[in-house]
Structures are given as C-alpha cells and as structure tokens.
Amino acid sequence: xxxxxxxxxxxxxxxxxxxxxxxxxxxxxxxxxxxxxxxxxxxxxxxxxxxxxxxxxxxxxxxxxxxxxxxxxxxxxxxxxxxxxxxxxxxxxxxxxxxxxxxxxxxxxxxxxxxxxxxxxxxxxxxxxxxxxxxxxxxx
Amino acid sequence: xxxxxxxxxxxxxxxxxxxxxxxxxxxxxxxxxxxxxxxxxxxxxxxxxxxxxxxxxxxxxxxxxxxxxxxxxxxxxxxxxxxxxxxxxxxxxxxxxxxxxxxxxxxxxxxxxxxxxxxxxxxxxxxxxxxxxxxxxxxx
Amino acid sequence: xxxxxxxxxxxxxxxxxxxxxxxxxxxxxxxxxxxxxxxxxxxxxxxxxxxxxxxxxxxxxxxxxxxxxxxxxxxxxxxxxxxxxxxxxxxxxxxxxxxxxxxxxxxxxxxxxxxxxxxxxxxxxxxxxxxxxxxxxxxx
Amino acid sequence: xxxxxxxxxxxxxxxxxxxxxxxxxxxxxxxxxxxxxxxxxxxxxxxxxxxxxxxxxxxxxxxxxxxxxxxxxxxxxxxxxxxxxxxxxxxxxxxxxxxxxxxxxxxxxxxxxxxxxxxxxxxxxxxxxxxxxxxxxxxx
Lengths: 140, 140, 140, 140
What we know:
The structure is a homotetramer. By secondary structure, chain A is α+β, with helices and mostly antiparallel strands.
C-alpha cells in the first residue's frame, strides 16, 4: 500500500461545494502513479521501453463523505489482484483527520500498441508484488 | 431512455490518444441532465425550490472500446430503479457508427441541505417514471 | 465567424456556483473545433495527413459575467490573424439571452512533429480564410 | 514568491502528449492557494468570515515549452499588484531541471455575495504584502 497526498483545489469542486464525482478517478490515478513510483516503476517507461499500456477496463467509486475545497487528502493505493495480463488496484481516500471519504477500484488490462492483451513484463510483475498482499493466479 | 450527443474535444483526451477515463463520468452527467430536461425537470429547480440534492453515492464504468478526439458520441441514459430516497441511472455510450464504447451506472441519494436522506418530491417521482421501464419499490 | 452551442454541466462549475475559470479555455477549444469543421477542415487530418499540429502559444480570457450550471452558451469563434506559421483566434462567449459573458483569444503556432515552426498547408490557409475578415501578412 | 510542487498526471495531458492548455490555469490556482496559505491566509476563510470572494477578472498564459506526464513542476506565484479591491498575481511554471515552461497572470476583483466590488479586508491586505515586492496604489 502506498499513500499519496492531494490538496483539493477550487477546480476540483463543483457548485454543490464538494469535489465533483469524476475527480475522484483523477485522485485514484495520482495514487496509482505514486504506487508505481514507490515500487521503482515508471508508467512512462512501460510505454516507451516495453510498448505496453495499462488502459482501464473497469472503474468504480463508492462515495461516503464529500471531500471539500482545501482538504488535505491521502489516497491509499493497493494492488489486490495480479493476473498474466491484468491487474486490480483498490483505493481508499482518507482525510487528514482520518475520515474515510471514498473507496474505489480500477481493473487494467495490459495491451500492446494494437490493443491486444499481452503478459505484463516479468520485471514489472516482480516489482509490483513487493510488499503487497495479493491474489496471484492464472487467467486473463 | 434519452439520448444526448457529445462531441469529443482535445481537452477530453489524454496522451494515450483516447478519452481520459474520468471524463466518461462527465459524459454520464451530461446525459443525466438531458434525461431530466426531457422529463420536464430541471436539476437547478430541485436545489432551489425543493432544497433537495441528488449527490452520487456510487458510480461505475465498464470501458469497452476507447472514445477518441472528434468522435460524435451519444449517451443513452435510463432510470432503472427508483426508491423513496434514491435513484439508479444506467448509461450506454455509443459512437456515431453504433459501436458501444462504454456502459455505466450511478446511484444517487436524495438529501436535504444537512445531508439527511429525504423522500424525492412527489412531482419528481411522477415525472421521472414517464416512459421508463423501472423497478419501483420501498426501501432507501 | 462560427457559433458553437455548449450546455454547462455540473462538472464545469466550482463551489463559487459558477463555471471554473479554466473551463472557458475548454469552451474556446470546442468553438475552435467547430470553426474548423465549418470550413471543411478537420484538426485530426492536419495531424495525420500533414504531420502538423497547432499548439497554443498564448491564451487569454476576460471574464465579464459568470456562466452558470445549465446555461446554454454559444462560443463565437473568429480567425482574426493568419501568418505563414501562426494563427490567432478570438472568442466571444454569449448566453442564450444575448449577455456577453467572456471574451478571449488564442495564438497558435504551426509545428512539425519535432516542434519546429512550419508553414500552414496551403489548402488550410485557403479554407481558413473563407468568410473571415482577417489581417493576412508575412512574418511568423 | 511562493513555490508549489505539482506532479503531472495522465488526466492533465491530452493526445498531443503534453499538458492540455486549460490545465495550466489549474496549476496556477494551486500556486495561488499555497501562496495564501504561506501568508497565513485561507481562501475558505475569506468566503466564510469576511463574505468576500476573489473571482478572476482576467487570466493569461504564455506557453513556452510543453509540460509532460510525470514531470515534477513548480509553480512560482507572486503578488505583483494590490489595489483597494483588486489584486494581480503572476506565475512561472518551472520544471525540475529548471526549464521555464510557462508564465501567466490572473487579475482578481474582491466582491461581496452580490458581486459588488469591495475593499479587501485590511488584515488580508497586510498579510498579502509580506515579503512581496509589489506596486500598491489607489484605484480599482
């Protein structure tokens, strides 16, 4: 699990006075990026060196309490499932005072530039798992 | 079911050359707005006249094929469940040539300015149902 | 001059209850896209067939009256200056009732994939000018 | 002058492979927020306690070199002009290696809930100026 801090700006909010619902997926992406960085992986490298991408196949968010302007948030990102050509991340969005604001997940396929599913590079599989309690199995 | 057209702009895409995953929730919101308008309802009125809001409690997206810059899309929005204080919408994102790009849903609670769950205004319940094949029931 | 309609969604607003200031540049982009389409030009084609892009070198907005949720807006886009390797567009953002909400401009350079300034394709120059009252001159 | 760090995410980029032009205004806002915080001021407090807001009246950006995914950027925010009811901020967006990517400005009016121009609260004027080399004068 990795934690990424996010400070809510005006541009994240909507006129309900809270963070707009789509922006939680932006926060999750920031968490995912830092997760990879913490494992010594750079997504840009996956694209450039391995010619692989990890497009999102599915995403979901459960909104518990609203995040607000100027809140200092932490996204806690975990890798919970890793298959040959797919990965599932889960996210917890927590406020400075410890309140849990939202949870969510993304499922990613590993694809080549043509969009065909491909195995994750072995070096990535190895590093992704470090320190994560996850279900590894065969399948897609 | 209501259809809303959306033209993809550069600002919707990311460097993968496709629409950024969070922006599908923006498209769904545009669809939801038009759905209400088509039923003779205005969300702004719900806020001003009834002092009710419909914050999103849960949202999910399944990404099938990427939407791209300049694509002309249609969001097909349906109300599929209506309870006393909640509603579930489902969305299909379809490209001009008929290809189904994404599906998704949002669940909304009806709340007062304090954030407490409240019944939807009867006039809204009546109008929301017009022409929709939905499951109505008790519960929250 | 071309007009493009835009319906303001929740995701465009911020907690001040008005459209977030950065989103006016999104609206201008939508206007620019429709401007090109109306002249029979597609920006995607400029990229793919001519290997040219038109990145923004400068942008400015003057905010007069706020745009709000559910407003039906029109972006009026004009090409006001065309040089060998650059173009200047101006924008007026007008509400349904005729109120002028914002004005702005963007200046674009025409570049190749390496980022070097290049002449606009002649076919583009010709079409861009149709119906526009603009200052054509030498220079960059 | 205050510095704010920003890590570019995928959601900031567009399909040109660079940060979308509107998002620089988001970065500037993040810089402005940190500027205020560093002076011991909170924008949320201006709204709640003083019933004043600082909507943007004008904004401009000059784009020099593109910011890219995963870049670590710093926004350098300065207050350069302070009048009775308005303020002008200037921004420099600098990459980790020192390259200057963009410059820009915003002009803000101080308004009450009705949108009428009002003097900035004296406490704000005092604090805003600390450590800034700025032009103070009468007028709007």
